Amino acid sequence: MLFVLAGTVAQAQNTVSGTVTDETGAGLPGVNVLVKGTTIGTTSDANGQYSVSIPTGTESPVLLYSFIGYTSEEVPVGGKTTVDVQMVPSIESLQEIVVVGYGVQKKSDVTGSLVSVSGEELQEVPVANIQQALQGRAVGVEVQRVGTAPGAGARIRVRGERTIIGSNDPLIVLDGIPFEGNLSDINQDEIASLNVLKDASATAIYGSRGANGVVLITTKRGKSGETRVTLNSYYGVTTVAKKYDMFNAEEYAAMRDAAGYSDQYMPLEVEGMARGRNTDWQELMYEDGIITNHNLGISGGNEKGRYAVSGGYYKETTILPGQDFERYSLKTTFDNNIGERIKIGLNSMNSISYSNGTQFVNGQGTQDAFGGGLMYPILSMSPLMPAYDANGEILLTPAGNQTDGGNYNPLLLKSNNDNWTDRIRRFRSFNSAFAEVEIIKGLKYRLNMGFDFSQNNSAQFQGRDSYFRTQNQSNRARVGNDEQISWTAENIITYDKTFADDHRLSFTGLYSAQQSKSWGTAVGKDSVTSDFIQYYNLNMSSPTSNLYLAGREETWGLLSFMGRVNYAFKDRYLFTYTFRRDGSSRLANKWHNYQAVAAGWNIAQEAFFQNQDIVSDLKLRVSYGQTSNQSVRPYTTLGGVSGNNGGIPIRYNYGTSQVVGFLPTRIPDTSLDWEYTNTLNIGLDFGLLEDRITGSVEWYNAQTDQLLYNVTLPITGGYQDPMVTNLGRVENKGVEVAISANIITSNNGGFTWSADLNWFVNRNKLLELAPGEERSINNGLHVGHPLSAIYDFKKLGIWQLDEADAAAEFGQLPGELKLADISGPNGEPDGVLSEDYDRVVIGDQQADWQGGITNRFTYKGFDLSFVTYARFGGLIRSHLHAPNGAYLTNNTGLRNGLDVDYWTPENPTNWFPAPNSLLPGGASGSWSTLGYYDASFIRVRSINLGYSLSNTLTDKIHAQSLRVYFTVQNPFLLYAPYVTKYNGVDPEPTGQGNSGAVSAGPGVRANGPNQSLGIGASTPPVRSFILGINVTF
Amino acid sequence: MRYCKTLFTLLAILAFAPGCQDLLEEHPKTEFTKSYYETAQGAQDGLNAAYAYLRFHYGVNPTLALNVSGTDEFTYGEQPAVNTSGDNLPHKLFGTYDINSEFGFLTVTFNRTFPLINLLNGLEEFIPNIPDMTEADKIEKLAQTRYLRAHYYYLLVGQFGAAPTDLGSGHLVFNETPSRGFNRPIKSDTEGLNTLLELNYQVMIEDLEFASKNLRVSRPDNEFRLSQAVALHLLSRIYLFRAYSGVSPNAQADFQAAYDAAMEVINNPGKYGVELLQDFGDAYKQSKEYNREIMFAAERIPMDNVNNEYTNPSGISDRENMAAAVFTSNYETVSFRNGSDPIEFRPLEFQRPLRKLAPTNWLTQIAFADKVNDSRYHNSFRTVYTVQAHADPGTATYNTWLAQLPAGVVTGDTAFVLADTDAQATVINGWEVPYRAYGPSAWWTPENPTQGPQIYPALKKFDDVQRAHGNDASGRPMPIFKFGETYLLAAEAALQGNINGGATEAARLINIIRTRAAYRPGLDPGVLATRITNMQVDAGDIDLDFILDERSRELAGEGMRWTDLALRGEAVFLSRIALNDQAAAGVRAHHRVRPIPQEHLDRINVDNPSDYQNPGY
Questions:
Q1: What is the CA angle A889-A891-A894, rounded to 5?
Q2: Residue B351 near residue B463, CB atoms below 8 Å
Q3: How many Cβ atoms from other residues are within 10 Å of residue A776's Cβ?
Q4: Residue A900: is its pLDDT beyond 80?
């Protein structure tokens, strides 16, 4: 009571309010307003309005207004109750500070190629991890998903792929410390900004790890001002965006009859036909999911010390039973100034997450593997079969054929009475601390320490007589533990000095060390004594049951020296030289030096450019330099003496005494070198019409040579494992355009429209493989083509009735697949279709171009945004359509399939061959060619509509700001021929290798870090409807 | 403020301090380097691997095909005849000598030998450096090392001819030099190939001479560890083969050495722990594998998939012991006279009917013409099947099957009979019984593929009833060398080298095993005596063909016949394979060595890889 009274009194006496406007007079939101000498302050609302209470007794109060990119203002209050301020752009105008490797730079000083995305922009697409939010948002950055389960990752490629067996993933640096592994560990709400470094000048400072680009993530920290409490919360419902288009009962029977499937219909199917039954298994299985996120933060502090603490909760379930992802996160930051010259800070990010159903439910296409797989049975089961028996109980074995007769009904998954578990629990603690001392003016020493620990614990169990294990099978369980611990220590010296007014020089020097160790254990057993035990004690199982044991360990270290000089003359002529020397534990030739040079010319600042008002900013940048890729597995260069042969432990017995064996399987690899990428980058940054329109255009050419490549040596050398060596060259060339425009601006809360647009092209080409090697079919590599080349038979259509004679020459009949006879042993078509002579590169999975556009509108308190992503050109590899891929289009009549248009004498289509219960001899291997389709699409990723309450309303609830919003995620596809013409459900990949399929098809990279992406039978795409609120107190 | 600066200095020092160069050294925890072999445990683990890889060569489908199919004894079975998918096609093509270098079967022998030779070269170098090991231990381990190296060269030479002894770093030196070459003369360089082959024999003989003096004398009772007996046995084989090879410096001396090595064992069975069992069939009995007649075997443990390296116990790759299954015909297709089903699915005792290999007419009708005095036909082949179910009694499947059996028939009753002769079949088929008998003319053969059930006598030496499921692989040890063969080696060396009376000595030795072959348990002593008499041969009966016939009777299907023929020279090879109706038309002299696998030729980095193919391919 007393407190409220006191507050009221204070307010009555000393409240100052007003509006902060920018140079155009428009309300400027987010400006920090602080009562000088205190921690009391506020920020301006969406319309630029603010209100702050000055404590009684403050002598001649002064208000401090600060905002990035603007000169801070100090205004004495005097006796006024209203203070309006117009902020002036700082001298370093439009000169946002951008984060670069080991430091920050004014944007106008940057000579390298980089792209920034703010935390707010990322939050426009609410998802579990930042990769997906990044899709279509950053020019030159391609994001493709690699899974459909909640929390599944995505593949980020900066300017294409450049390595074959190494990782093409960019280096992620979180608050200055390299971040390895799973990005779902990061709570998206905590991200302040994200910068992607692309060219050699920007990435050479990361030397041996810069070749794939660098993603710098900066998280939020506490700011000076009064204590602030923020709550961001949303809740949404997810529904199936599009079901797979399968044959219905009538169509299924027609296909089965056309196939001449000799096996009789099951009695229940006959009954189903009589009753007109049409079981829609998808409809029965799918249920609505949820997506929800809550993030509560407290921050505050003063010039001496600042803090921020926040906790988050995220949960996503999906439309299939048993699949979900849940994450709890806690982040704490402290920043302290000790005296005038010393700063220290700490950032601790901790998260714990649970993923369910990633192995069983979303696994491979067949039910046999321990991985399991749910979509295949749902899609392939006979629509003539009932889901429930006469008593309304779930029909245990509803397969429409004898072959699958033992398979259980997937509806059993809807009620899991502890008879199966498929859980991964992940814990991560990512900590960084720094201390910085200004030794003399301009000279600073900074120590960065990073400590990162993560642990994965997986538990899997399949009970006896459960969906996954039928009556004759024992139960089985598997438990795994993996952990990774790494530390980083960086010593950084920076020196900034301006000489004779016109010469600005800065130097950054670094010595750093990093070490990472990971290890894991997995154990599994079947015939656990009772289902009740699950995976908790594998020792309680039959002594003779199958035992599975596995373990691994990897440790690597990296030592680096780095130096960078930036020089600017009259702010117009910029020059950067970067040097880095890296030593890696992984390679035989441990040390290498990297260098990059770059120059920039701020043309707009030249005198001759001043007499016009169209071009407000113009800068030309050129850079050239070298980076590399050290991504070979640790221990590769050591000769390997292994206790495994093809993944199976070498064992033997002398009588009953059991022993293990060790064999030299890998030859010592003493010449292994790094993989080098040399990049030339030319960029032009521009601002037009007083920077109403800003943007950049870039051109680059990146040549990667000494590619790391697995060569299988002749076995007569005595080693069965491939040797990693350096061979071949890859090229990536491209053009990138990014434009931001304030199309309509307004003063005082009127209508505004702004848009960010990006468009980019990357051309990837394998220039050279081993000497004399034109292609490596099993690795999917073809010289002169992109790394994603598709090598297969060329489909001409279907043999039609009037082509019976021509078909007969190939031993085929009308209705069968018609393929191009490309060549033969004598170099010309020979009338025989063979894998050796008639397969060619028929396309690739590279986009012709891709891009994104985000439109934002505001009016009064309302804001509306659309995020759109487009990808044009290239081919989809649809395992769904490859008859031997996911077995959903082989039309043998055995199982249901995708509702494709197949040939019959009455329906002379050229799409799919005639159903045939007997796969035509020899043809089946060529059928993968039915699975390639145009990959183009335009997708609206999200639509956000928000409303920010005005200050008068927020004051009533003692809030500084409050915004409510409604988001539709994945609302619709504007264009996608694969979906509209070819019965696909979504044009984006669902996984790598043979994920969602039995076979990835011939000539496909189906393992390793750069597996081919494809569309298999996996959880269908979902659409979410989300309602959320952001409040700051 | 001062303490802060101190703190900083300290932190800065700490950051630099740890011997940072250590970061760049690799010390793997789960991977070893060659230095592991310089420890006692490491050397033993290396030897274990060399023993373990014998499993790829004994009992698995691909190497059984290479060593059994297309010989005078066996041809392809009913599956390869009707089905060209998977491993069936190579079975058929090997069986008809329509052989090309693409078949994966070849790579099992080719690829599962060189890594072991490299390992064993290394062990020979590393074992002497092991600290804390007695000299005697080192010598014994070196003896195992050198025996196994000889054995792997024997497997290679037997299939592919001359094999490199320089894997990249020098003659019999542990290889650490990455190379994409192939240290073998090209096919037109006959002289070079012969020189290398001569070197191969020299290496094998030197290794085996060393092993036969330094291994333990006899093996432990219940373990198939290497012993001097095994080394002497293989040494005898190798001397014999060198004598036939055309590259021997002195063939007569080789026959003498072969004879001496074999006789050393034959004359000292107590010392070497070997004996001929009274009953020929007992040598193959399950759970009695460690009998004294089996000298050496590739071991496995029944029902232990992990130890047996089976990730898929019903697989038919190069890992699973399918020795019983590949010889088994399709007994599931046989019914009682009234059409009912006497055998439910695949009872364990009848093995999985993989039907990859079938005995030739020559084997069942000519080599085993005498099925009465000689017990070895019935001890080698299953000819009587009984009423059995795979399903457990009480299950629905079992009850359904039981209900359809003819009245009065119970499990254990006769299901069908593969009669010794057509006449015998006619007699049985005249009886009033529910089952039928099938004489030789009613058996499935490649020439006679469509009549009736697809059955023929199944080799039963490797039968395994200790399996979790009818389709599962066997966990039995697979015999490599048997004492019975030692007599045949000595006999052959005596004959060819005209030693101790030549044919007379050969007849004496052969009569020892033929006398034993007459034995059947429970036989009236008088009858046995007559049969023994009937079995005796004399010097006039003995020639190389007789010895090869006798080898078939003693060793049918035991995974060495093809090598036996190939290494006895072109004339023997062609004349014996001509006894196989399917192989006769296709076989040529150049088939005496297998093609070098195409996979290997694709990997070598030379101008014309095909120059390195074996001649004729």
A1: 115
A2: yes
A3: 20
A4: yes
Of A356, A347, A352, whose CA–CA distance to A313 is shortest? A352
Q: Which distant-in-sequence residues (6+ apart) come within 8 Å of A875 by Cβ?
A: A790, A842, A843, A844, A845, A932, A933, A934, A935
Instruction: Give the helix/strand (H/E) hosting A32.
Output: strand A32-35
pLDDT of residue A727: 85
A405 touches B at CB < 8 Å: no
> Residues 6 or more apart from B41 whose CB is under 8 A from it?
none
Quickly tell me which residue has 């012993």 as its tokens: B227
Q: Would you put residue A958 in left (φ > 0), alpha (ψ -120 to 50) or beta?
A: left
What would the two tokens of residue A576 be?
């950067």
Cβ atoms within 10 A of the Cβ of A120, count?
11
CB contact under 8 A, B304 and A639: no
Torsion over CA: A915, A917, A923, A926 (sign): positive
Q: Which of A630, A656, A715 is the mutation pick for testing B, counting most B CBs within 10 A? A: A715
Nearest to A716 among B16, B27, B167 (CB): B167
Which of B246, B250, B267 minimizes the C-alpha distance to B497? B250
Nearest neighbour of A559 by CB, restricted to B23, B222, B300:
B23
User: How many CB atoms within 10 Å of residue A924?
Assistant: 13
Q: Indicate if the pLDDT at residue A519 is higher than 70.
A: yes
Cβ–Cβ < 8 Å for B175, B118: yes
Average pLDDT rounded to a whole number, residues A831-860: 90
Check B180 against A711: CB less than 8 A apart. Answer: yes
Q: Are A230 and A1031 in contact (CB under 8 A)?
A: yes
For residue A544, the chain B residue with the least C-alpha distance is B304
Is residue A680 classed as helix, strand or coil in its secondary structure?
A: strand
Neighbours of A410 (CB within 10 A): 24
Q: How far apart are CA A474 and CA A524, in angstroms?
A: 13
User: How many Å apart are CA B153 and CA A409, to the nearest integer?
Assistant: 55
Q: Report the SS3 class of residue A1009.
A: coil
Residue B602, pLDDT score: 85
The greatest distance separating any two alpha carbons of chain B, rounded to the nearest whole angstrom, comes to: 115
Yes or no: say if A455 and A427 are a contact pair by the CB < 8 Å rule: yes
Q: Return the structure tokens found at B590.
A: 């150049």
Coil vs helix vs strand at A653: strand
Per DSSP, B47 falls in state H
Q: Is A957 on the interface with B (CB under 8 A)?
A: no
Encode pLDDT of B585-597 as tens digits.
Answer: 999 999 999 999 9
Give the pLDDT confidence score for residue B566 in this predicted structure: 97
How many Cβ pairs closer than 8 A exist between chain A and B? 222
The shortest C-alpha distance from B402 to chain A (Å) reads 20
Could you count the other beta carbons within 10 Å of the beta carbon of residue A390? 7
How many CA within 13 A on the CB side of residue A539?
Answer: 0
Note whether B182 and B604 are within 8 A (CB). yes
Instruction: Write the DSSP symbol of residue A904.
Output: B
As a whole number of angstroms, the distance between CA A622 and CA B53 comes to 60
* Cβ burial A151-171 (10 Å sphere, 16+ → b, else e): bbbbbbbbbbbbbbbbbbbbb
Closest CA to A791 of A822, A826, A818, A831: A822
Q: Do the strands A937-948 and A932-934 form a parallel or antiparallel pair, or are they unpaired?
A: unpaired
* CB < 8 Å to A550, chain B: none
What number of other Cβ atoms are within 10 A of residue A483's Cβ?
Answer: 15
| Six-digit token string for A547 | 């035992």
Q: How far apart are CA A117 and CA A102, in angstroms?
A: 18
**ipTM for this prediction:** 0.94
**Which amino acid type is present at position A14?**
N
The maximal CA–CA distance of chain A, rounded, in angstroms, is 104
pLDDT band of residue B146 (cuts 50, 70, 90) is very high
- The span from the CA of A648 to the CA of B222, in Å, is 26
Structure tokens at B585: 């038309």
